[in-house]
Structures are given as structure tokens and as C-alpha cells.
Specification:
Elements lengths: L2 H18 L4 E5 L4 H11 L5 E5 L6 H17 L4 E5 L3 H10 L7 H26 L1 E3 L5 H7 L20 H11 L3 H5 L13 H5 L3 H12 L9 H16 L1 H4 L14
Parallel strand pairs: 1-2, 1-4, 2-3
Helix pairs in contact: 2-7, 10-11
Length: 264
């Protein structure tokens, strides 16, 4: 990858899209992770206003601290208008949970509530986007968005544009190094931070991003599980299963096309 040229291309693409949409700037949720750090930096490089939102919900302190340090780094590095707001959604989330019917805590319940956190954040991002005529910048990368579908539908998947969605996770890290993103973010284990604990993406997915990237490329090359053994076979099957069950996130919303003869 020609990292510098890729960065220049994305920044130019962001500027062109913003200007064509006749909007004034970008708003992005800052999590303390590598994807939001890279995406926010690319947005800042356009020279247009950038609003960074911290939206903690029972958040791990180390995640919040990394997010704050990154925002300060952005403000010190760029002369363009860069603002930040913290909107603590913990009480909002708790109020919603208390309003829901009581049920036994299960993995399904925990996952539903994790996705609820993401959707509350999406709603908050669009509130501020509407106030300022900004675009919501997505932070999903290629293996998450189009490989295993590791995001929340109408949560962090609800965005106006996706600057890094054609980049593998490893390529996002290369750009982070090129941009000089804080080392603590580059070294932090990837996590979606939706469960209020320290579980990583690998804990949830069953494979790390290097493994999933390998499986994605193997799948695209027409390989099958029978061609592998051991850990490679296990990872390929993990990827294939997640790719299959999460297609509803990756394909356009199905429309019931009414036969023309029924409309006469």
C-alpha cells in the first residue's frame, strides 16, 4: 500500500463529498480505538470543522482516557476548527433498561443491550450533525463491514460516509503509524466497548484481525474449508459463518417488488 498517497486520496475524497453534499463539517464518535482515531485524523486533515463526541456508557476508564488524549492530540496538531463534547449516556441507557420488561440475563439479552448502546450513540451523533449541518463519519474497516459484519445495524453502521471501509485492519494500523497516532491507541487491543468490560473483539469473534483478513482473502479466492486443517480451518469456518449470518447487514434492504399486473 502506498500509504501517503492513500491518505491523500481519502482526505481529497472526504472534502469532495462534503462539498458536494453542501455540508459544513464532520462529526465522529471517539472511542479510544484505532479506527476512530484514524478516521477523525483524516477528517481533521480536510481543514473543515470536526466535532469529536465522547459518549460513555459504563465505559472502561482506559478507553475513555485514550479517547481524551487523542482529542487533545488532534487539537494540538491541527489549526482547523476541532471541537469536542462529552455526552454521558449512562443514565439514558440505564433509564431505557429500567423501562424494558424484566427478563433473565442471557447472552442474547446482553448482546441486545450492547447493540442498544451503539444505537443510542448513533442517535446522539445525528443530533449534533443536524444542529451543525455536519456529516456523520463512519469508522468501520473492510473486514468488519464487509467480511464478518462486526458492527451494529443502525448503530455504528448508521453513518453518512465511510472513509476507511475499503481498508483492512492491518492497513488502518499502517496509516495510524504514518499519521503519528498516539502509541497507546496503536497498541491497545481492539474492542467495541459495548459490554462495559474489557472483552476484546477477538474474544467476541473467536479470531484476531490478521486471521480474519487471511480468511477473507482466501474466501474471495474461492477457497473452501476442506482445503485447510488445524487453526486455519477453524478460522476459515469462523469467518465463513459470520459472513453468512451477517449478510443482512451488508446487502441493501430488501424491497418487496409488487408485480406490475397487480398494480393495474
Amino acid at each position: 500500500m502506498q500509504t501517503e498517497k492513500v491518505v491523500e486520496y481519502i482526505v481529497s475524497w472526504l472534502k469532495d463529498y462534503l462539498e458536494t453534499a453542501h455540508q459544513k463539517g464532520f462529526v465522529i464518535g471517539i472511542s479510544g480505538g484505532i479506527d476512530s482515531a484514524v478516521t477523525s485524523t483524516l477528517c481533521a486533515m480536510t481543514g473543515y470543522p470536526l466535532l469529536n463526541l465522547e459518549m460513555p456508557i459504563h465505559q472502561e476508564k482506559n478507553q475513555a482516557d485514550r479517547a481524551k488524549r487523542h482529542i487533545e492530540w488532534l487539537k494540538n496538531k491541527f489549526s482547523s476548527p476541532i471541537d469536542s463534547i462529552e455526552v454521558d449516556l449512562t443514565s439514558t441507557f440505564d433509564a431505557m433498561v429500567s423501562a424494558l420488561p424484566e427478563t433473565e440475563t442471557t447472552d442474547k439479552v446482553n448482546l441486545a443491550l450492547a447493540n442498544t448502546r451503539s444505537r443510542l450513540r448513533m442517535t446522539t451523533l445525528y443530533y449534533f450533525a443536524g444542529l451543525h449541518n455536519y456529516l456523520v463519519a463512519g469508522t468501520g474497516n473492510k473486514v468488519e463491514d464487509f467480511g464478518v459484519g462486526f458492527y451494529t445495524k443502525y448503530g455504528d453502521g448508521g453513518v453518512d460516509l465511510s472513509p476507511i471501509a475499503d481498508l483492512m485492519k492491518s492497513e488502518v494500523y499502517k496509516i495510524a503509524e504514518f499519521l503519528g497516532i498516539n502509541t497507546d491507541i496503536q497498541k491497545a487491543k481492539p474492542t467495541d466497548g459495548l459490554f462495559g468490560d474489557d472483552r476484546s473483539d477477538e474474544d467476541q469473534l473467536g479470531a484476531n484481525y490478521d486471521e480474519l483478513e487471511w480468511a477473507m482473502k482466501a474466501k474471495e479466492a474461492g477457497k473452501t474449508a476442506d482445503e485447510f486443517e488445524g487453526r486455519e480451518k477453524e478460522v476459515f469456518e469462523i469467518y465463513s459463518r459470520l459472513n453468512r449470518i451477517n449478510q443482512h447487514k451488508m446487502v441493501p434492504i430488501p424491497i418487496c417488488d409488487i408485480p406490475e399486473e397487480l398494480m393495474k
